C-alpha cells in the first residue's frame, strides 16, 4: 500500500516511517511533485490536519494522511497550541519557539503541559481521524540533542529525561505522534 504523508518536515517523515509496517510505503510531498506550501490556517490542531489531508486529496487525487501537533501548556491557557510551529514568528525556528516559551513560563510554578497530535487519513473516499496525546512538564532549560521542535524542554510523565534525551525508538513508543500512528497502523491493517 502506498500513502502520501502530507509533510515537508524530514524529521516527521523519518519518525513516522519507523513506525509503519513494511507493507506501507510512505510517499513524500516531493515524490508526488507537491512543492507548494500547504495551507495551515485552521483554528485547531484537528482542523489543520484535515485541511492538509484534504489539500492533497483534492489537488492530487491520492490516498494520504496528514498530521498536526501542538504543545499545550496549562499555565499559558493552552499556548502555544495550534501555533506551536510558529510561536515565535513565521520563521518557524524551534530554538526561538523554545526560548519564547521558557521566558513566558519563567515566573510560573505550574509547568504542566501536553503534546497532542491529530492525524487525518483520507483513503478510498473516506476520512478518518486518530489522536494521541502525552502529558508531561516543561523544563527550565534545554536538555538533549535528539528529536526536534520542543523535545529538549518536554519531560513526559513517568520519565526523568526530555524527549531530546531519548532515542527516536524510545520516544516513538510513548510519544503523542507514536500513539496516533499506532491507531492509524491498526486501522490500515484491517483494510
UniProtKB/TrEMBL annotation:
Cofactors: Mg(2+)
Reactions catalysed: ITP + H2O = IMP + diphosphate + H(+); XTP + H2O = XMP + diphosphate + H(+); dITP + H2O = dIMP + diphosphate + H(+)
One GO CC term, this protein: cytosol
Binding site for Mg(2+): 68
Active site (record annotation): 68 (proton acceptor)
Cofactor mode of binding and number, as noted: Binds 1 Mg(2+) ion per subunit.
Matching CDD domains: HAM1
Residues reported in the UniProt entry to bind substrate: 7-12, 69, 148-151, 171, 176-177
Molecular function per GO: dITP diphosphatase activity; ITP diphosphatase activity; metal ion binding; nucleotide binding; ribonucleoside triphosphate phosphatase activity; XTP diphosphatase activity
The entry's keywords: Hydrolase, Magnesium, Metal-binding, Nucleotide metabolism, Nucleotide-binding
Record-listed E.C. numbers: 3.6.1.66
Pfam families documented for this protein: Ham1p_like
Top enzyme category: hydrolase
GO BP, sorted A to Z: nucleotide metabolic process; purine nucleoside triphosphate catabolic process
Stored Gene3D superfamilies: 3.90.950.10
Subunit structure: Homodimer.
HAMAP family cross-referenced by the UniProt entry: Non_canon_purine_NTPase
Family: Belongs to the HAM1 NTPase family.
Function: Pyrophosphatase that catalyzes the hydrolysis of nucleoside triphosphates to their monophosphate derivatives, with a high preference for the non-canonical purine nucleotides XTP (xanthosine triphosphate), dITP (deoxyinosine triphosphate) and ITP. Seems to function as a house-cleaning enzyme that removes non-canonical purine nucleotides from the nucleotide pool, thus preventing their incorporation into DNA/RNA and avoiding chromosomal lesions.
Name the UniProt record assigns to this protein: dITP/XTP pyrophosphatase
Source organism per UniProt: Flavobacterium orientale
